[in-house]
Amino acid sequence: SGMIFWNLDNAANQTDPGTGAPFSSVGTVTNSTGVFRSGSAVYLGGGYLLTANHVTMDTTYAFVTFDGVDFFEIDTSFKAGARSAGKQVSSGVSGVVLDMAVFKLTTIPGGIQSATLLTSSSELVAPATMVGWGVGRATGEALEDTIVSWGNSTTSAKRWGLNTPRDLVQVSYGGGNYTAIRTVAGGSGGAFDPDGLGNAEAAATLLDSGSGLFQEIGGTWYLIGITNTVDQQGGGNTSTFRDDKTSGTGRGDGNYFTRVSDYDTQILGTIPEPAIASLILTALLLIPLTLRRNRKSTSS
Fold it and tell me: Tens digit of pLDDT for each residue in 132-146?
């Protein structure tokens, strides 16, 4: 999946939103020149990234770029089973198969913000920020259309958009069911109302599987979901913006993100020591730093 906006063109939202959301932490799995892409991934720190398990990493898709300029090679020695690179995250529950995988780069990229996993089930019914490298709208598709056709791979770019988590659902994948966060590409009422989020209301599209859903909770930005699938109401390769409801007819596309807080222990368990200790320490340090900044701002 990727990103299309209700009322913005493909050139929009391609730079850091400036809200504190970890825009730099989302990369794309690609070849050495960035021409071919297979999906997105979120940087966790220490050279490790989290993505959707169905994102391909092989001799063609052997690099990651976070900015389209610098490319980092994927470490193919960090793998499990038949995968050419990466390790699928285990749910730890019989019959539950997760669409998430951790993989590693051969070098640690500089200047890339590490995402912080949400480890408690405290997602809010409040706007969240999607960041991904998906395709945009097709040539000639007008803004504010109810159904928008997806463009080809040349429209793929790193973008951010907004949407609101609506509920938790069980998503079927690979013979198992796991918990996902659902957002809806839609507003409410007869005329489309973009959820109070303005023109940047976003819908997932192609080439952004593995991208991140981030939310600010208590002054800290957390990774709360990994993009995994889309319920396309208007047919294949389209995004539908309609009513913001989770069932029945007339609703917008449902976008589904594997819920990080349910599987944070399993995600971290895929990363070997001592890297895991470093990631946990970094996450713990973020909260007191944020609180200190907030207190200082309040007192002034």
Answer: 999 999 999 888 888
How many whole angstroms separate alpha carbon 194 and alpha carbon 242? 9
SS3 content of the chain, % helix, strand, coil (to 5): 15, 35, 50
Residue with tokens 């609506």: 166
pLDDT tens-digit profile of 184-233? 987 654 445 545 676 788 888 998 899 999 999 999 999 999 999 998 88
Which DSSP symbol is given to 11?
A: T
CA separation, residue 48 to residues 15, 31, 74, 93, 242 (Å): 23, 18, 10, 24, 37
State CA 285 to chain mean position distance.
Answer: 23
CA angle 37, 10, 145 (to 5 degrees): 115
Placement of tokens 């980092």 in the chain:
72
Task: Estimate the crossing angle of helix 275-299 against helix 260-269, to 10 degrees.
Answer: 140
How far lies 270's CA from each of 88, 98, 215, 284, in Å? 8, 13, 23, 19
Q: How far, in Å, CA of 131 to CA of 22, rounded?
A: 9
Q: How far apart are CA 146 and CA 37, in angstroms?
A: 28
Contact present, 150 and 233 (Cβ < 8 Å): no
